[in-house]
Amino acid sequence: MSVYGEDTQDFLKGKHVYGGEYVHRLLKPLQPGDQLPEFSGTVFHRGRESDINIDQLKGNALLLIFIPNTLDNHGKASWNLVIDLCLNKGLDLDIVVITSNSRDTMRAWMRLKANPALRRAYVIPDHCGHIVTQFGLLNPDTCETYSGFFVSDVDGCIQGSSISNKVCGIYPFSSEEAIEFVESSLTPANDTSSEA
């Protein structure tokens, strides 16, 4: 009998729940053909802060950009890319940015540093890592998130994805590459209308 009043053999036969829901696990990163996972959180959009879930964005093509840290050099470069994309009126999709910074950090950053062009983007802080875990962008050894770039169609099906580690920042690296990536992701394979 243990000091806790249980026989070890009986304990081992019982159901064991160790709080796995609180431990971040690296899932297989989402790939083209996968459905967007259900998620919700606080969002900064058009100068307001509110709650959002993925169902509110369904029906539109989405560009989801994961930025591990807003405050480092790679974060700055990634935000410059997001600003360029927000300024592009030819992109017919909603831009969703998920960052690993806290809600308070993002609230202050949006107030003090953010470019007005970002009003077009949905900015979702994911400090606890729930969303990055669902997308498979968490390194289990270091608990750091990877940069990610996902394009989904109006039905919530991922059509393109690009994942890179924090060292090299986000790919695509330029707005031209990003626009090409989005357009090629959302163009059906049998569509030959652009080939003429």
- Classified by CATH, the class is Alpha Beta
CATH superfamily: Glutaredoxin
Q: Residue-averaged pLDDT, rounded?
A: 81
* Low-pLDDT runs: 18-26, 192-196
Ends apart, CA distance between termini? 80 Å
- Shape verdict: globular
Structural class assignment: alpha/beta
Provide a quick synopsis of the model:
The chain is of the alpha/beta class and 196 residues long. The protein contains five helices and seven strands. Helix content is 25%, strand content 21%.
Labels describing this entry:
7 strands, Glutaredoxin, globular, disordered C terminus, five-stranded mixed sheet, two-stranded antiparallel ribbon, alpha/beta, 196 residues, 5 helices
Description of the structure:
The structure is a single chain. The chain has five helices and seven strands; from the N terminus they run αβββαβαβαββα. The protein is globular and about 45 Å long. It has 196 residues and is α/β, with parallel strands linked by helices. Strand 4, helix 3 and strand 5 (122-125) form a beta-alpha-beta unit. The chain has one domain (26-186): Glutaredoxin. Strands 5-4-3-6-7 form a five-stranded mixed β-sheet, with helices on one face. A two-stranded antiparallel ribbon has the order 1-2. 25% of the residues lie in helices and 21% in strands. Residues 18-26 and 192-196 have low confidence and may be disordered.
